[in-house]
Amino acid sequence: MSCGCPAIASNTSSLPEVVGCDDYLFDPTDPQSIKNKIVELLSSDEALKQAQKHAHRQMEQFSWDKSAAVAVSAMQLVSRLERKNKTVWLDISELAQTDAKSGIQRVVRALINEFLLNPPNGFDVKLIYATQDNPEYRHATGFLAQTMNISLPDMSEPPADFKRGDVFYGVDFCPGIQSNRGGFYKELRESGIEVVFLVHDLIPVLHPEWWTNNRADQKGVITGFEQWLNAVREGSGVICVSDYTKEWFKKWILENSFEPQGRDYFISYAHNGADIANSSPSYGVPENWDMLKAELQTAPNFIMVGTIEPRKGHADVLDCFEKLWQQGNKANLLIVGKTGWLVDELIKRIPLNTLGQPEDIAEAALFLVSPAARYITGQVLSVDGGMAM
Prior knowledge:
Elements: E1 9-10, H1 15-19, E2 25-26, H2 31-42, H3 45-59, H4 64-75, E3 86-91, H5 93-97, H6 103-117, E4 123-129, E5 138-139, H7 141-148, E6 167-170, H8 175-178, H9 182-190, E7 194-199, H10 203-206, H11 215-232, E8 237-240, H12 243-255, E9 266-269, H13 289-296, E10 301-305, H14 314-326, E11 332-336, H15 344-348, H16 358-368
Parallel strand pairs: 1-2, 3-4, 3-6, 6-7, 7-8, 8-9, 10-11
Antiparallel strand pairs: 4-5
Helix pairs in contact: 2-14, 4-6
């Protein structure tokens, strides 16, 4: 949407907040509903134009500076200016050690950039991390130098020096480290330090079946996330990434007796940004981009972006497109994302039982221009994983 592309989305979870108009929502459990929405857009140039205009208007509401500003407001930092040179400590323990390039970590990178470039008034911003072997939070000096592409005169990573009036903000989701530090977060809070966590979602406790089919393992998923929530509730409050997540968080902690007792505990939300340039995106195109671009320009393209996993609905969308293709529709479905978990049956629906890679097309093209293809003339080579077989 931030690129001006029309977007249609599920009418559940936080997506209606993002899309901002019921006209572009469908029932994610019904392939016919998905198909109808696609056909609706493809059948009317005017509908496409209106969807593009709406996308431009809607995305103006989502930016990383607004995300940071809402978080700052929720933390009530303005009222904490009684001491100069206070610090917002950003816990990036997961990202500082392993960049899995997941959706959560893209959010973390974007928020890091925003806080570092535009720190809250009256506050310094410092990046910190801990490890399972070393529970003490330390300055993430090496990560800072790499992320900001700067040379620092002192590359040491001393322990974080928390002081009254500071803010600890757990922007990264690192349960292996944070889950065992509930007592430490309580000590920080009782020492006059605001302790806040960013809650990206509650999927592990609401839908453990999306992670594993094994019931015993599902219990383990729930238990692990509850341990993290136990640590989180020792803080001062949470900021969720959507109003939907906020309401589910309030509902879940109340129903499961996780609500902090005898003290104030705030639950707020701040939408993630949609300004791509400020979200630390990946760059570049495959070497055979010109060929791919020419192919994609022959028909409308629908793109799904995200790790391929059950909750994303790839199988339902594929059901929908198979119906469209059977009816002669030439629209392309592009799936951009890493192969996740519990998608073996979905992969089997692709004739070669694997997802195509840009290199597959590039290598076919290299073959045609190599000496090995010197006796081939006028041949159309179908590189589609067998979809046309």
